[in-house]
Design goal:
The protein is α+β, with helices and mostly antiparallel strands. It has one domain: Roll (Nuclear Transport Factor 2, Chain: A), CATH 3.10.450.40. The chain contains 2 helices and 7 strands; from the N terminus they run ββββααβββ. It has a 3-stranded antiparallel sheet with strand order 5-6-7, covered by helices on one side. Strand 6 and strand 7 form a beta hairpin. The longest helix has 19 residues.
């Protein structure tokens, strides 16, 4: 089923053997890459979509520890539902704040396949 799917890989790279942009043929990996784009893009970074993204990196040094974690949890949940609501159904978001790091765990279902998946991400400045 995945052999009929092709997209550009994120982060962008060149396949040296073929001399072309690297491609992603696994749909589940593509969806994970979409989630990473939403989480790691800060609002204002995209020219034609200034409101795109979540901007969790700016929350790494936010004061308050658990308050920052709760804010990040809400921000992640809202951004994923806004930008990827047609691709995934977010079932859980948990965020733990430590010194200079946020540990984010996202549970989601890939709507097209009905697959339950998890993404664990450590965000540092």
């Amino acid at each position: 089923m995945d052999s009929y799917f092709t997209s550009l890989r994120y982060p962008f790279g060149i396949d040296a053997a073929r001399g072309q942009a690297e491609q992603e043929t696994d749909y589940s990996a593509h969806v994970e890459q979409l989630i990473m784009q939403v989480l790691l893009t800060g609002p204002g970074e995209r020219i034609n979509r200034p409101d795109f993204g979540c901007g969790v990196r700016r929350l790494v040094f936010a004061p308050g520890g658990e308050i920052a974690a709760t804010l990040a949890q809400t921000t992640v949940y809202q951004a994923l539902n806004r930008w990827l609501g047609n691709v995934i159904s977010v079932s859980e978001v948990s965020v733990q704040a430590s010194d200079a790091r946020l540990d984010i765990r996202v549970g989601y279902v890939v709507k097209a396949r009905g697959q339950r998946r998890y993404l664990n991400l450590q965000v540092t400045p």
